[in-house]
Amino acid sequence: MEKLREILQSAGAKTAARQLLLTMAALLTATIFLAATGFDPFAILRGIYGSLTHDLAGTIRWATPLILAGLAVCVTFKAKIFNLGVDGQIALGATAATAVALTIPVQNSVVGLAIIFAAAIIAGMLFALIPALLKVFFDTNEVVSTLLLNFIAALFVDYLVAGPMREPGAMVQLNASAFIPEHLWLPRLALFHPSAANIGVYFAIVLAIVIAFCFKKTTLGFDIKMTGENKRFAQYSGIEPHIVTLKTFAISGGIAGIIGAIEVTAIQRRLLSGFNPGFGFDGIVVSLLAGNNPLGVIFSGLFLGSLRNGGINMERMTDVPSSVTEIVMGIIILTISANFVLPRLWKKLKQGDAEGLAGKK
Predict the structure, then answer these.
(1) Tens of pLDDT, residues 191-204
(2) Is 72 in a helix, a strand, or coil?
């Protein structure tokens, strides 16, 4: 408990203040954008407020996969590795979860769900290891390989739900598998019944704490951070970067697999074509907004979950389209990018000026 308290304290006011400033800057810019385009400038703020007060269940529903996606991205970003294939790994995790749920004869809910989640984690890990192995053995750029694998995974799911896994005798034109047995549904939060908020949010929070502990107190966490900070120094210290690459991709893919399992067992309760609205790419925003801090990911995930939920409610109650939510997220990305790029650019300019003065002397 003492170690856990140290980690929670070390997450500190610095990350929280940074998140708050970035969020306020992004929302201010979004408010100006709404006013300039003729919409109610405070609509997005009211949407977020409503999603945190009157529709907290909807916020939890969206925040759960966003927190997990943020963690999946955070793990690789710590090692300066860019896993942009989280969406594909989610798809494979959901596919494995559905296939197992529809075939296992287990009647015990806890045992059955444990098997389903294990299958999803393994599927996500194996799919994530494809770009990892390509990077290790062929020095393939992981940005390109992970992006392309997203399309392969999406098309693979489309093929399965339109063919081998399509619900037998389905009369409607909906590409989907059969519903999984009811005893294998992940329980939803009784407090918010009958909403889609489910106990997956507990998994996300616990996993964030575990990852924060690993980064702070374990050898694996040290190896990942050291590789990200200085790869050459890490090699001299006896750390093998290739092994770190494989481990980080496997962990990231496993977390993505959990998202797929939750979506199948708690939300859709079957495998649907296009079930994922892009949690993987949203996870990049979540992680960057948190400064790649696993504990900060909880709060940034909740914020973006409220933003997504607020956008849905905003479209229903006002004339502001929900696409404005995507624009706000784009503004957040630009704000974060400026926060990272401008200090480095200023540093480069100062170095250039110093070198110029030295040359004149």
Answers:
(1) 887 888 999 999 99
(2) helix
3-state SS, residue 319? coil
78's CB contacts (< 8 A; 6+ apart) are: 215, 224, 225, 228, 248, 292
CATH code: domain of residue 28: 1.10.3470
> Which of 216, 217, 210, 208 is closest to 296 using CA atoms?
208
- Total domains, the chain: 1
Residue of 60, 72, 56 whose CA lies nearest to 248:
72
Helix orientation angle between 109-138 and 142-162, rounded to the nearest 10 degrees: 140
Q: Which residue has the higher pLDDT, 340 or 138?
A: 138
- Please tell me the predicted confidence (pLDDT) of residue 15: 58
**Token output for 108:** 């015990």
Instruction: State the helix-helix crossing angle for 56-78 and 294-317, rounded to 10 degrees.
Output: 140
Q: pLDDT tens digit string along 176-190? A: 999 999 999 999 998
* C-beta separation of 241 from 231 below 8 A: yes
**Mean pLDDT along residues 153-176:** 87
Write out the residue range of the structural domain in which residue 16 sits: 2-360
Q: Which residue has the tokens 């955070």?
A: 74
For residue 192, what are its two tokens?
Answer: 């918010």
For the packed helices 86-101 and 241-262, what is the interaxial angle rounded to 10 degrees?
50
pLDDT of the residue at 8: 45
User: Hey, what amino acid is at 161?
Assistant: V
